[in-house]
Amino acid sequence: MKTLAFLGLGWLLAILTTTIAALVPVRVPVPEVLLLVTVFLGLRARSSTPAVVALALGFGYLQDLLAGAPRGLHALALGATVVLARSAASRLDVSARWQVGVVALVAALLHGSLVVLLSASMYQGAAARALAVVPGVAVMTALASPLVFLALGRLERRLYPDPSRLRMGG
Amino acid sequence: MFVAVLLAVPLLFLRANIKAPSELNFIDRLVLRLSAPVQAAAIGIGRAAARLGARYLFLVHAQEDNERLSADNARLRVELERARGEAGRAAELGRLLRLQSELPSATLTARVIGVESSSLFRVVRLRIDLGELEVRPGMAVVAAAGVVGRIYRVFGPYSDVLLAVDPKSSIDVVVTRTGSRGVLKGVPGDDRYRARIEYLLRKDEVKEGDEVVASGLGGGFPRGFPIGTVARVNRRDFGLYQEVEVRPAVDFGRLDAVLVLTGGAPREPR
Question: Does B247 lie at the interface with A, CB-CB under 8 angstroms?
Fold first, then answer.
């Protein structure tokens, strides 16, 4: 149920991203909101690793479908990102806003480069130009990250209450 | 171990799909059919909110200058802008209707209900409200100003249009002034709508500002239909071909309605 809630959120966010792209008359870098959700799940979610990897793959599948990309492209990139975030979770302190921003920036740079690399065969030799988009998207993602992490933190506390904070009744 | 198996799944999917990403299975169609109305509603709400926001901001600004007269002035300006917008849309629809009667093929009018885009995977697509009963992949899509693209995939009552500026699009074109032929392809990895002509011989004297039109070959687009103008020419000292960048005639960011060329004899507009 909780996994479905996050998957539904991811679906809405993916649609929201395409809506922003449609409403803005000029093409501007749009934050990778689903990447932020994935990084959040990897760093902070109390679910098991297979569960967060499965969620990330679900987000990636939705993004592939809505972007018209080959199925598996964003799924693989987000899957790799969540595994990386999970393995770094115990070593990284990501509590302050600037720390969230820096982690989001690095994650967006790695994720963007991976997507371009994996789809390089479709760019017919122009993959280097596609790479030029990555820094702009990464900066926008980093700027949006504190707000997204704040919202996701609240959502997670509702979905997964911390047992140590629950008071005993009676 | 389980995580590695999970990650292998998208890798296998990617290998299988990278050649033909437009093919959809049952689940893909279901997700897209569920998403399309939500996307259309979100865009509708967004546009309405933007209009309201613009009006509110304008009025607040006017009150700072002069309470009553400025507010009246602002209201009239908003009305005027709205009327101009409506007139613009009506003019665009009028142009589409005229175009519909001039085209040699049967056409259907479609409303643009959304765009698909990924910042990183540089595909640029439109979603329209014509589906399986009306259109099929490969059909040409045009606007009054020129070529838009082709139907890429169809799901339920909706379909996606692969724009002429998408890297996967290829359209046979002619430079009107010189008669030179080439293949128009989208340029990926940029924040502008751009395309380039491939296989244009270096000896052809193409210049900036030259008009580029559809050759009529390869099916779909009527011969001579506008595509854009040459924006930049890079004639290198070696190689058979030159690099020519094209600025599209259509402003893809502002399309409200398009025509789909369904083939066959012309018929009454929908």
Answer: no
Distance from CA of B108 to the nearest CA of A (A): 23
b/e burial code for range A78-101 (CB count within 10 A of at least 16 → b): bbbbbbbbbebeeeeebeeeeebb
| Torsion, Cα of A23, A25, A27, A33 (10° steps) | -20
Q: Which helix (H) or strand (E) holds A44?
A: helix A33-44
E strands within chain B?
Answer: 107-117, 124-128, 140-142, 147-155, 158-163, 170-175, 181-186, 195-201, 211-214, 226-234, 241-248, 257-261
Measure in Å the smallest separation between the Cα of A145 and chain B Cα atoms.
17
* pLDDT per position as a tens digit, B115-140: 665 665 555 677 888 888 888 888 99
pTM for the full model? 0.61
Q: CA angle, corner B116, sides to A66 and B174, nearest 5?
A: 130
Cβ contact, residue pair B120, A65, below 8 Å: no
Q: Regarding beta strands B195-201 and B241-248, do their DSSP bridges make them parallel or antiparallel, or are they unpaired?
A: antiparallel
- How far apart are alpha carbons A140 and A144 in whole angstroms? 6
Q: What is the ipTM of this complex?
A: 0.73
